[in-house]
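Bump. Still looking for NTP-binding protein structure tokens.
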Amino acid sequence: MADHLLDHVRPYLHCNVEERIAYIQASRWIGHQVAMQAHNRLAELLARPPALRTRGLMLVGPYANGKTMIAERFAVEHVRNADQQRLWVVQTREGAGLAHFYESILQAFRAPIGNSRSVRRTTAQIDHLLDSMRPRILIFDEFHNALRGRTRDVEAVFAFLRRIGRQFDISPVLIGEVAVYDFINQTSEMASRFELHAVPRWQYDEEFLTLLDSLEGALPLAHASDLSDEPLARKVFQLSEGLIGEIIAIVSTAAAAAVRSGAERITKSGIQKLRYIPLSERRRAAIRSELL
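Sorry for the wait, here they are.
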């Protein structure tokens, strides 16, 4: 019974509908090859010897493709296992200029953000924090937010990234969309400081089918759905457009619907009933006209 499920998932079949759906909808880590390779690269940055000219890392790929999950999972494991925290995740704020960028760092360190607009004073505060906290890695999530201002503002952010490597022995990790790659590679000086770890869209191949098998084993449905078989796998791939965030959303939504209906398996007709609109088509979706 329920041989398609992972051992730790089978007990959830005995939970009530609400508990099972809550489990299905919970965030989950998928340790696929690209994610594990990124974790290995981050671990190497943490373990590296001191350097006068540190190298950083770019995690670049399309929206909704798991980049933030990769970074946050690594950060949580580090904090859980390390004697001293040496890594912080900075959620890069919307808005141009060094002041907004600095505020993102202060927020990550849970430091007070004053009303002063003096960049010099904030710089001193940041330097004091970095000197006392001694981070080895700063991960800047949604780093493309810092690239939407004037050229001189972007140059100031890049100058800061170079300085923290030289002065505080910090390796910056930049997470974002392809704009991050484009800006870093505009000059050889910045390009030489960052390695690329691509987080591309999934292809319809054996690795994608293995991902679907992993998801099926993690969702407490009484009957096997055979997600990796055609045409069900092809349908999920088309709707998700190869984005792992969309893949998980489609499969989880279909699984929750299967629990509510009593079907206890995901089917192609069940996915069609969701009327799921691919990300690239939502701007042109027919329902948009009803919102005006």
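The first strand starts at residue 56 and ends at 60.

Edit: fixed formatting.
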